[in-house]
Amino acid sequence: MAAVEALFAPTPSPQELAFWGLTLDDLAEQNQVDVWAEHWLAVDLFCQMGTQWRMGFGGAMGLDYAVLFRLFDLQNIDKSKQKELLSQIQICESAALNIFHKDKKS
After folding, report:
1. pLDDT tens digits, one per residue of 50-72
2. How far, in Å, CA of 68 to CA of 20, rounded?
3. Which of 10, 49, 76, 86 is most buried, judged by most C-beta within 10 A?
4. 3-state secondary structure at position 38
5. d(CA 23, CA 65)
6. Using an 8 Å Cβ cutoff, are 100 and 60 in contact?
7. What is the reported pTM?
8. For the chain, how are helix, strand and coil distributed in percent, rounded to 5?
9. Is 45 within 8 Å of 55 (Cβ atoms)?
10. Are 97 and 79 in contact (CB under 8 A)?
11. Under a CB-based contact definition with an 8 Å cutoff, are residues 71 and 48 in contact?
12. Can you tell me the distance from the alpha carbon of 27 to that of 92, in angstroms, rounded to the nearest whole number?
């Protein structure tokens, strides 16, 4: 998912960019991502959950859903929309975990 990659993918170092004749300014436009309106709330909630990762010995394991459900309540999100939002957020979560752990996969 492009939105998650834009949030979590590591930025190349200035030395890596210089090898290709680039600077960080050259990447500014590349990190802009369009999010469809029907997914915006899920991406926004996922961003709000940015400090709510469950951690294990190997790093992040997943989001703390108890906090997510509390966010649903605080933002008065209709119960009928919560299941779909959870599913969309889990897609974001899976994409983020793949980025976090890509070096750990063999």
Report:
1. 999 999 999 999 999 999 999 99
2. 41
3. 49
4. helix
5. 39
6. yes
7. 0.77
8. 60, 10, 30
9. no
10. no
11. yes
12. 22
Residues 5 and 102: beta-carbon distance below 8 Å: no
Q: Which residues make Cβ contacts (< 8 Å) with residue 59, sequence separation at least 6?
A: 100, 101, 104
Place of tokens 């649903």: 72
Helix (H) or strand (E) holding 105: none
> Would you state the structure tokens that stand for residue 53, as one six-digit string?
């990762």
Q: Quick one: CA dihedral 29, 30, 31, 34, positive or negative?
A: positive
Q: Which two tokens stand for residue 23?
A: 């600077």
Radius of gyration of the chain (CA): 16
The pLDDT tens digits for 67-106 are: 999 999 999 999 999 999 999 999 999 999 998 888 876 5
Per the listing, tokens 């919560």 go with 82
